[in-house]
Amino acid sequence: MNAFPYKNGELYAEDVALSAIAADVGTPVYVYSVAVMTDAYRLFVDALSGQRAQVCYAMKANSNVAVIRTFAALGAGADVVSDGELARALMAGIPANRIVYSGVGKTREDMAAGIDAGILQFNVESLPELTALSEVAAAKNADVEIAIRINPDIDAATHEKIATGRKTDKFGINIEHAPQAFAQATALPGLTPVSVAVHIGSQLTDIAPFRTAFTHVAELTRQLRAGGIAISRLDLGGGLGIAYGDETVPTSAEYSAMVAETVGDLDCDLIFEPGRFLTGHAGILLTRIIFVKHSGERRFVIVDGAMNDLIRPALYGAVHAIQSVREPASDAALGEADIVGPVCESGDTFATACALTNIPAGEFLVIRDTGAYGAVMASGYNSRPLVPEVLVNGADYAVVRPRETLQQQLDRERFADWQD
Ligand SMILES: *Cc1c(COP(=O)(O)O)cnc(C)c1O
């Protein structure tokens, strides 16, 4: 679904003209479509309709409370990785018994907060974590259900920085050591191991690594059951990729068929943790052209958005489609342009040699498919205010994170008491 079409010669978000949002909220600004998020959620869930599946939205992709509430209203749970995400999930209306807690470095405070909230399960990633969680739970006279996240040693063929399933990655317990870890968990007070978890990476554009990973999970589950450990739930993680350009990606139907083939005969409740799939296409970064600078052969289009607002190109070499808000005439000549931000780093480049019409300063561009790992990774580098976020629903829109003010930025800091 494309909720960002041209209408009447300009780009819209659903039924709201982006020029109206720019005039009202200013730029840069992230704009999210409820319709696209809803559509993606239904696509994912409907494909799994024959299976006992619960989606636990991986909030780290986009943790704006209004975005989370959109998924809460559709019946989603949440996959959280910090105390802050847990608080947001609860605030946004996700029931505690639909929350799973992931992360390789949970502190005892994180564990206590999850136990106090009554979450569904902790996904444990190491033996020291197992011991710590047992101690925290036992001290509270609590009994917590856990998954052990296994590391299946699979190369998911995605970007180096978002591959998580190889044994050289920091995530999970090596699958060969998993039976031993489950045995230890069974013996520890306060813990009930009920689940095997796996997540091999993000932006997977091929179904094969999932198939291999889930096949390993199924084998391990049979082995554990034979040893008397009652596995009733599998957490199959997230990672399903989306198309940022014209690449082909697996459909949710293909993904679901593979799930049924690999783990369908185990009679388990299934948890899925999609993040990018649910929000990636739903967002755009709207930005204004400050200057157009010609330097030799190059045309630099300098925009008011920057790497601190959207770091994916700088961090992962990610390529996002870029469009002008004013619809180009069908016969408009295209020329190469580099779309760059104002930050003092050459990495502050959104696109290199991108085909763009001769578009002047003052006009607006959108950077597409930035609903996942966009605003959540924003920073205040160069003392730039945290970028605002707008949620669009039909003809309505709401500012769901206002632009940070200079005063708010300054209020976070102090002089040392010896400075006058
Ligand atoms: C990041 C992450 C996800 C979500 O990944 P996507 O690629 O956004 O679907 C799910 N589970 C875990 C454990 C993660 O770390």
Description:
The chain contains twelve helices and 21 strands. The chain has 420 residues and is of the alpha/beta class. The protein folds into two domains: 159 residues, Lyase, Ornithine Decarboxylase, Chain A, domain 1; 170 residues, Alanine racemase (TIM Barrel). Strands 4, 14, 15, 16, 17, 18, 19, 20 and 21 form a nine-stranded mixed β-sheet that branches. Strand 2 and strand 3 form a beta hairpin. The model has no long low-confidence stretch (mean pLDDT 96). The site of pyridoxal-5'-phosphate has 18 residues, from helix 10. Pyridoxal-5'-phosphate binds next to helix 10.
Can I get a quick summary?
The protein is an alpha/beta fold.
- The CATH class of the largest domain is Alpha Beta
Count of separate DSSP helical elements: 12
Work out the radius of gyration: 23 Å
Helix content: 25-40%
What is the makeup of the main sheet? 9 strands, mixed
Helix/sheet category: alpha/beta
CATH superfamily of the largest domain: Alanine racemase
Based on the coordinates given, report the CATH architecture of the largest domain.
Answer: Alpha-Beta Barrel
Low-confidence stretches: none
Identify every distinct bound molecule in the structure, by name, code or SMILES. Answer: pyridoxal-5'-phosphate
- Count of strand segments: 21
The third-level CATH topology of the largest domain is TIM Barrel
- Round the mean pLDDT to the nearest integer and report it: 96
What is the global morphology? globular
Strand content: 25-35%
Count of the separate structural domains: 2
- Our measurement of the CA-to-CA distance between the termini, rounded to an integer number of angstroms, reads 58 Å
